[in-house]
Each structure stands twice: as structure tokens, then as C-alpha cells.
Specification:
It is a single chain. By secondary structure, this protein is an alpha+beta fold. It has 2 domains: 2-207, L-amino peptidase D-ALA esterase/amidase, CATH 3.60.70; 220-307, no CATH class. The protein has helices at residues 46-56, 115-135, 170-191, 272-280, 286-295, 304-307, and strands at residues 2-6, 9-20, 26-37, 64-69, 77-81, 84-90, 103-109, 147-153, 200-205, 211-214, 249-252, 259-262. The strands form 2 sheets. Strands 1, 2, 3, 4, 5, 6, 7, 8, 9 and 10 form a 10-stranded mixed sheet that branches. A hairpin with a 2-residue loop joins strand 1 and strand 2 (9-20). It is globular and about 55 Å long. The protein starts with a strand and ends with a helix. 33% of the residues are buried.
Length: 309
């Protein structure tokens, strides 16, 4: 999966089976999910607009699910909790106070989901959104134009898809946690009108009972975690988990029950030449990026004795 923004659009690219309540929605295989900011006086036919936007961006409109919002993408909130990623733009009222806003939620999970589970996840997402708004003191459970996309990875045919995604299931708990936090945070950021805002990326840490933290490379206490002059634009790697054993390795989790992909020694996406390339070509693959480093005679991975000092 690749997540990136271009001007007024959030793009999520991958091989998904998804359910959408938005424009040209339904359940079908898709490769592109997008959320685009439109002017307050937007009046174009939304289906044609999203289709043309996909084409202009180089993507197949037949394999695209799109959402539209008046909320600028600088207020976008991205939440990462284990295998679930949630992207939210939210506004209950526009700054002039005369129009209702929109809450758009896109949920992507590594867990394959059946059609029924995709629909179940929409219910879980909507319930979490309503609870977040209630806790913030709103009378309504949402706005008239809210939309949800639930997408699950469709590449692993060896894993049976989950049949449920209610808030008591493992995937449902993650969705509930991320949406409750994300809706509240996204509304606060937009309604507060922070002029210096930019898309925010939040990670859920299970350390100390569990908490969310905002990743910000400018205040990172671990910089430099690899080498002087490293670039940290992609501290949380868009290639994860690449499963390329020349870069990372499988290790056991803290509980010792599950294997997780570790990229602690990989420095591929910290090399400035790779960062510049990824910013220009956000869907560049592992082979392409490794070849780029070979051309510049740069290492892709640190040895253990270097990374442990």
C-alpha cells in the first residue's frame, strides 16, 4: 500500500477489495482510493469529476473509489494501529458557519475481509464516529454528506477472509480505536482553523497501556537514528512490510507469540537520493529503489554492530 498526497488529493494505492458508501460506491476490487478537496461552491457531477480526476492522475477510474470534501487536505489525519490504517478529513461546519461539513473516513486493513465483514466494518466505523461526536458534545451523529470506504488487501489468496468486523473482533477493535481518536482529532484541527496545519500522522503505541502519539521528524529525540545527513521524510516506511530479506528480517514480537517484520537495520528510505525519488515517484518499487542505490554506490542496510551503537 502507498499513501501520498498531491495538492488537494489523498491517494491510497494497492490491490484491495473494498466497500464504499461514497461516489459510485458498492463492493468491488479497486486499486485506488482517493479523497479530494473541492471548493465550497462545487457543482460538477461528482461521478464524472472523480472519474476525470483518476484519469488525470494516471489511474483507472473503473478501479477507483473516490470521496469529495470541502476540508483542505492540510487537515488530513492518518492513524496507524498495527495492521489498520485510517485516514480522516472532518468538518461539521464550514468556517463561515452557514453550511454543514463532511466527515470522510477511509479504513484500510491488512486483514482480508469478506463482503459481509466489509459491511460490518462500515457499521463499526459509523458507530465509532457517532461516539466520538457525542463525546465532543455534538447533538448529531454525523453530517448529511459523510462517507466511508473500507478496504482490505486482496493479494494473499492463502488466507481465508474474515467474516466479521464488529467492535468485539480484533480488526473491529482497531478500527473503533482509530476512528474514535481520529474523528475527534480531525474535527479539532479543522474547526480550530490552524493556519500552519499540515497532514498529521499518528501512531498507536501499546507501551504503557496504549496511547497515540503524533510523529514529527523535527522534534524526534532519536535523530539521527542511522547516520548523519539521513532524511526522515519516510520514517514510517511506505514500503512496509516489503519482506525483502536483503533489507529486513522476521523477528518475534514482544509477546513472543507472533512474528513481525523488522526493518530496524534498513536505511533504504533514509538515503536522500531515495527520498527525492520517492517524492517524485511515490509508487516506485523495491527493485527500482535498490537499483538507484547501487548506481550511487550507497548501502541499503547497516550492519548489526553499527545499528546497535
Amino acid at each position: 500500500m502507498r499513501i501520498f498526497t498531491r495538492t488537494d488529493t489523498l491517494f491510497i494505492r494497492g490491490n484491495f477489495k473494498a466497500a464504499s458508501t461514497g461516489i459510485s460506491g458498492g463492493i468491488r476490487p479497486v486499486t485506488t482510493l482517493l479523497n479530494h478537496t473541492v471548493p465550497h461552491d462545487f457543482s460538477a457531477p461528482p461521478e464524472r469529476f472523480v472519474s476525470e480526476l483518476a484519469i488525470r492522475s494516471g489511474f483507472d477510474p473503473a478501479k477507483t473509489f473516490g470521496l469529495l470534501t470541502a476540508v483542505p487536505m492540510k487537515y488530513l489525519c492518518i492513524m496507524q494501529i498495527e495492521t489498520v490504517t485510517v485516514c480522516i478529513t472532518a468538518g461539521v461546519t464550514h468556517p463561515d458557519g452557514n453550511e454543514h461539513g463532511t466527515i470522510n473516513i477511509i479504513v484500510v486493513t491488512d486483514t482480508p475481509l469478506s463482503d459481509a465483514a466489509l459491511l460490518d466494518a462500515i457499521i463499526t466505523t459509523t458507530e465509532a464516529k457517532a461516539q466520538a461526536m457525542k463525546q465532543m458534545g455534538y447533538d448529531a451523529c454525523g453530517t448529511l454528506t459523510d462517507a466511508v470506504i473500507i478496504a482490505s488487501f486482496a493479494f494473499d489468496k492463502t488466507v481465508a477472509p474474515g467474516t466479521y468486523a464488529g467492535s468485539k473482533t480484533r480488526v473491529g477493535r482497531r478500527i473503533d480505536t482509530a476512528v474514535r481518536f481520529g474523528v475527534k482529532t480531525a474535527l479539532e484541527r479543522f474547526e480550530g482553523g490552524d493556519l500552519s496545519a499540515q497532514p498529521a500522522y499518528f501512531i498507536f503505541s501499546s507501551i504503557g497501556g496504549g496511547h497515540w502519539f503524533l510523529w514529527n521528524r523535527k522534534s524526534c529525540q532519536y535523530y539521527p537514528c542511522h547516520f548523519a545527513g539521513q532524511r526522515c521524510d519516510y520514517c514510517y516506511c511506505p514500503l512496509y512490510p516489503c519482506k525483502d530479506e536483503s533489507l529486513g528480517e522476521w523477528v518475534f514480537s514482544i509477546s513472543g507469540k507472533n512474528r513481525v517484520w523488522s526493518c530496524a537495520r534498513c536505511i533504504l528510505n533514509h538515503q536522500p537520493v531515495v527520498v527525492d525519488h520517492l517524492r517524485q515517484f511515490p509508487e516506485a518499487g523495491i527493485f527500482e529503489l535498490k537499483h538507484l542505490l547501487l548506481m550511487h554506490h550507497l548501502p541499503m542496510r547497516q550492519e548489526k554492530n553499527n545499528s546497535e551503537t
